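FAQ: What does a ligand-bound record look like?

Like this one, built around iron/sulfur cluster:
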Amino acid sequence: MDETSYTVVNKYYPENIGTLTWRERPTFVKFQCMHCNDPSCVSACIVGALTKERNGAVIYDAKKCIGCRYCMIACPFQVPAYEYKKALAPEVRKCTFCFEYVEDGGLPACAQVCPREVMTFGKKKDLLKLAEWKMKNNPGKYVDHIYGEKEVGGTSWLYLASEPFETIGFPKLSHDAPPRLTEKIQHSLFQYFAAPIILYTFLGGVMMATGFMKNGKKKTEDIASERGDNHESS
Ligand code: SF4
Ligand code: SF4
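The answer part, i.e. the structure of the complex:
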């Protein structure tokens, strides 16, 4: 994927390429933004230019973007691409899940045009049931793994494959959503910051109180000397 290709189809050959028959086709895999359930890109974007929508899409608002590219670093699938070649107003580019079509009750364009109906669009719970049904009723056709069901906390794209996923370009990822991990780290840091903050607050309080007392004492002395009722001089 790059700033002009939001979706790509890669071709993976099995290891025994020299002995392939016409039936032993390579595996084709479509990649695009996974529209993660708990997206790292959204979590990393400090200005809210990326948002997770109710229909599952993770979309981008160029008007809010400041071009920091944190989203590119945060994405575990290396999806967001930047328009480096655009000197004026470069934007972050990635698949939008055809947000507007889906909002209007349509399908994402890829699911609509695919002549082999490789993609099925629907509610996640129905798709998971369908994936399990396919695996059960086609023994030996699929590896026993629905990619995207649990990876990084789950994604809006779910894959079935006949080859182990790590051999066809899918990264092996934890089931924890990265934003949950970074939040834990932030919370721990804040926890350890608590002691210095309490100390600084205490010291600040002492300084204010001392300053106040000094000022207070000075004011009392000034008033006393004006009145001429300073006990030491009387
Ligand atoms: S795949 Fe990357 S860009 Fe797409 S939603 Fe997940 S973290 Fe964001
Ligand atoms: S480049 Fe834009 S969208 Fe990406 S994290 Fe920065 S502000 Fe957000």
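Follow-up question: can I read anything off the structure? Yes, for example: Residues 199 and 205 are 10 Å apart (CA to CA).
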